[in-house]
Amino acid sequence: QDPSRLAHTRWHAASHEAMKREGKEKKKKQHSLGSNTHTWGIDDALARPKKRPRSSDAAAASDSSAARVKNALRSAQLDKRELLLWRKFGYGPSLFRQYYRAQDLMDGDDELEEVEACYSTALPITFRLHATDGRRASSLKARLRQLRDANLVHGLEWMPADEGWQATAETRDAGRREKLHEAVAEVVDAGTSSGLLARQEAVSMLPVLVLAPHLKPGDRVLDVCAAPGNKTMQLLERVSPPEDGDERGGVRGLVVANDAHPGRVKTLQDAIKRHVRSTREMESLVITCSYGQDVPVPIFDDGIEGYDAVLADVPCSGDGTFRKDPDALRRWHPGGGNALHATQVAVARRMAQLIKPGGHLLYSTCSLNPVEDEAVVAAILKENPEFELVKGVMDAGAPGMRYRPGVSTWKVAEHAFNGQDGTSRFDSDSESESEDDVTLRWYDDYGTATAAGMPATEVSMWPPSQEAAKRMHLERCARLLPHDQDTGGFFIALLRRKAKKKITEGVSDASQKGECARTAAARAAGDLPDPVRPLPPNEMSAIAAQLGLGSSSKKRLWLGAGGAVTLSPRSVSNLTDLGSIAIASAGVVALIPRASVWNEASDAAFPYDLTSAGAEALARASRKRRVQVVPSDLQVMLAARSSGADDPSNTKELVCLTAEEMSEATRRKWRACVDDRQTGAVVLVLVKRGKAEGDPPMVVFSAAGRCSEDGLMLSPEVTAAEASRLLKDLSRVAGTKRNK
């Protein structure tokens, strides 16, 4: 490779590492020079009086003193190095101004100044209500309307009615995290804990809104760069919405949420858990770990290859996010976007290969830079003529949201430092603090840039010809400037696949089924602490027999983290349909290795406990280990658990509803379960008659429980919070009057 490119790359890496070490080095200096908070320089360290040694070992004291001086010298050298690096990265505002003035994305210097002024203010606090569950969210909506009447919040006009809300921070300094008003915070906390509301930046809501008119319940969607998870939750609401009066039935889709790094996968899982998504949604979710360019083409049981839609909110330089991180503007330079361009194209290229005919690819970034935006879209359109940009996507998905059409021409630049000989180069040891020493070097084409040694050059970074750009209709892309509607900066493009050829025709065997895919999956699986994998066949058969599951449900049993049994989504019961990819979680965790209790035989045949989600997911499919319980008996057990009287952490003393305390109808079902030797984990269900004569009974409520010779109890996996939620659900579907 070109030495100048290597040097530039090492220089950027060194500067990044040096800034990360800044805090650590200060601690080292304080430790080596004493506990005084003053940061000692070279002269300070040399002039500092030495303490008399406490021991008679003068040589040891001398060595210690020399070590302190040596550490001080090293620290001073690091200070100088870090100062130089900070100087090199302290020209962000000037470079930003030069770069975007030349790109002509804004209406002259006046509007550019408006953008810069907006970046100095904080983002408003925004949050989103569940898109589809109107019945459960009705009371929350009423409380939000009250807050709106009190001028504490207002609706986002470009969002569907009562779905998007905004509360303005009291101060407007960029980077400041303001607390919500107490009344607003209470509503937000209640909505989050019930899975009905999530804090989310306004522009972050747009990709799914733009996709929404092209999605329907039952669709299969990939979110390739999913962390932290807000868009994943939006997608789940669209492809697996609750049906009126029937949250547990109906059509369910699939969302595959992927991220390249195990740490971000963990962040994604934690966010979804924190927002308490419904079992229905969780049954539709698979979380994977893979580099975007390595994700394999899925081939589902029904013969369909590829996804109905892919959302690619790719990693970017983030110059639309300066309102959240003002320091990022200080460090900004065009080399960041240039360096990411190749990765963005690689991910988008691969995503285009994963979409079935008629499907859609949503490409988005939180960058304003055309090199990261239109240049990537143009590269995909050039390589894949079967794709086209969809017209009017913002007007259809977020009507009323102000945006700027995409551009077909742009410029490519890299920052440079003026040398002592009057020349410009990409690296410099200059100690000058003058902005005149930092400038942009512009390149008309790829050949000129590579000849000059510009780092991170790709042919696709430069705009297409006028004729090609006209065919591509790049004006159908959308760019959001922060000052237009008090948001962050953002870019969106929606592409549709027209061709009818099979997806795998354009995918090489090496990337789909060969060693490359297996190696990528093995690498990701090695990073995951406990990936989802097949159950041993004998164990799968034994679990299915114990629960009375049919063949279709049996195929959905997989081994998850910690020895748990997970129930994969219906739309991808065989997880190998997703190809060679590491799976962090799939569907719901249904069964947990059991903890014995005082009244349970040590040789019980079923060594698992049901989770609340597992009971709900298996209530209809199970033909064994299912006990019909009347509402009043369910209320007693749930009330004891939710009040704390029944402590699930104390498995030796779980509260048991004895035979004498049960209603007669419950007692008969319990006795039948015991007589059939189905003690241990059971699903406690409430059943109602079918809607029409001749229809089979319907399960309208379920809870995870245990059955023993002494009676019925809730599973220790049911928490107090879950019991409270189940009590509300029980009251809604059946009422809770106690039978005498």
- Residue stretches low in confidence (pLDDT < 50, at least 5 long) are 1-61, 73-78, 244-248, 427-433, 505-515
Instruction: Supply the number of helical segments.
Output: 26
Q: Mean pLDDT score, rounded?
A: 81
The major pleated sheet works out as: 10 strands, mixed
The total strand number stands at 27
Q: What can you tell me about this protein's structure?
A:
There is one protein chain. The chain has 740 residues and is α+β, with helices and mostly antiparallel strands. Helices cover 38% and strands 17% of the residues. The strands form 5 sheets. Strands 5, 6, 7, 8, 9, 10, 11, 15, 16 and 20 form a 10-stranded mixed sheet that branches. Strand 26 (698-708) and strand 27 (711-714) form a beta hairpin. The longest helix has 31 residues, at 3-33. The radius of gyration is 30 Å and the shape is elongated. Mean pLDDT is 81; it is low at 1-61, 73-78, 244-248, 427-433 and 505-515.
Could you give a quick summary of the protein structure above?
This protein has 740 residues and is an alpha+beta fold. Strands 5, 6, 7, 8, 9, 10, 11, 15, 16 and 20 form a ten-stranded mixed sheet that branches. A five-stranded antiparallel sheet has the order 17-18-19-21-22.
Jot down its keywords:
740 residues; alpha+beta; five-stranded antiparallel sheet; 26 helices; 27 strands; disordered N terminus
Q: Which helices and strands, and how do they pair?
A:
Layout: H1 3-33, H2 42-47, H3 58-88, H4 92-103, H5 108-119, E1 125-129, H6 138-149, E2 154-155, E3 164-167, H7 182-193, E4 197-199, H8 206-211, E5 220-223, H9 230-239, E6 254-259, H10 262-274, H11 279-282, E7 285-289, E8 307-313, H12 327-330, H13 335-353, E9 355-365, H14 374-383, E10 387-389, H15 393-397, E11 404-405, E12 412-418, E13 424-425, E14 438-443, H16 446-451, H17 466-472, E15 478-480, H18 482-485, E16 490-497, H19 509-512, H20 515-527, E17 533-534, H21 537-547, H22 551-554, E18 557-559, E19 565-567, E20 582-586, E21 588-593, E22 608-610, H23 612-618, E23 626-628, H24 631-643, E24 657-658, H25 664-675, E25 680-688, E26 698-708, E27 711-714, H26 720-734
Parallel strand pairs: 5-6, 5-8, 6-7, 8-9, 23-25
Antiparallel strand pairs: 1-3, 1-4, 2-3, 7-20, 9-16, 10-16, 11-15, 12-13, 12-14, 15-16, 17-18, 18-19, 19-21, 21-22, 24-27, 25-26, 26-27
